Amino acid sequence: MTEDNIYVAGHRGLVGSAVVRQLQRLGHERIVTASRQELDLTVQADVGAFFAAHRPTQVVLAAAKVGGILANSDLPADFIRSNLEIQNNVIEACYRYGVRKLVFLGSSCIYPKFAPQPIPESALLTGLLEPTNEAYAIAKIAGIKTCAAYNRQYGTNFLSLMPTNLYGPGDNYDPRGSHVLPALIRRAHEARVTGQSDLVVWGSGTPRRELMHVDDLASACVFALERLDASDIGECINVGTGIDLTIREIAETVMDAVGYRGRIVFDTSKPDGTPRKVLDVSALRRHGWNARIALVDGIPSAYQDFLARYAQPHARSRPA
Ligand code: GFB
Fold this sequence. Notes:
three-stranded mixed sheet; binds guanosine-5'-diphosphate-beta-L-fucopyranose; 10 helices
């Protein structure tokens, strides 16, 4: 890929920063990025001007408005509008400026709430969505369909990857905005250092989630850039580990990693969300890609990242 000029949109986020790290590890030097202050991806003219100036040959669209179950259900207008704007602008610019390959990133919440488990790609649009993240899911489904429509009408090479729930370095630890794993890392850490006897876990603890380290997703993105074409896959392809745990089991794994020995208390006033969400990852396996980072290794490294960024005496910033 050495002659390529790869634009990673959203390079300061959890996914984009992992993609940049992975490209750098592979010795890639021509990586294009722009901060939110430099480029507002919701402004179509600015996105066009940026592509005209930088002429990326490949694009990873990792810029999105994302959040956990509460943020999704509290801010549906923000989630649907921002994501539609960002993806419409970037996809159109990729077409206009002749980008050779676009990797568009969705989410496992695009599938119906009661999809068969593990969820195959063919479950898309076969049933009703989970209400807590319907707005986000509709935007991401629109992104898949937009990529597919451009491929059909214009012969572009736009691939849609559907990652499962992610965690890792650079995660969001804001209690109201975060996903379950960073939320529990922070809460278990705070419970340990303040000597609390209980760890509050939202919901009933029975929903199941599949969690993947973001470095695995970054490796899948680079795999897609190097080895997959839209014609090799259907409208989208799943990226996950194929392994899920209950929220209770996830909380226990976090408690072990953090060294907190209190009692779990469930706050059932908070939503459970979809009962189960584990991806069928056989299609990407057939193409030769597998996730590598086990949860028992990934959670301690995520905790180290939390400590380094937020919990050390010399930390320069704290989570919101
Ligand atoms: O990661 P999460 O917020 O989102 O996980 P989803 C929610 C599940 O974890 C629910 C439980 O069953 C919650 O009851 N949970 C327990 C907690 N404690 C906590 C906590 O302290 N914080 C949080 N956030 N959850 C998201 C979608 O769904 O998945 C997004 O909303 C996106 O759109 C993402 O698709 C991948 O897995 O339910």
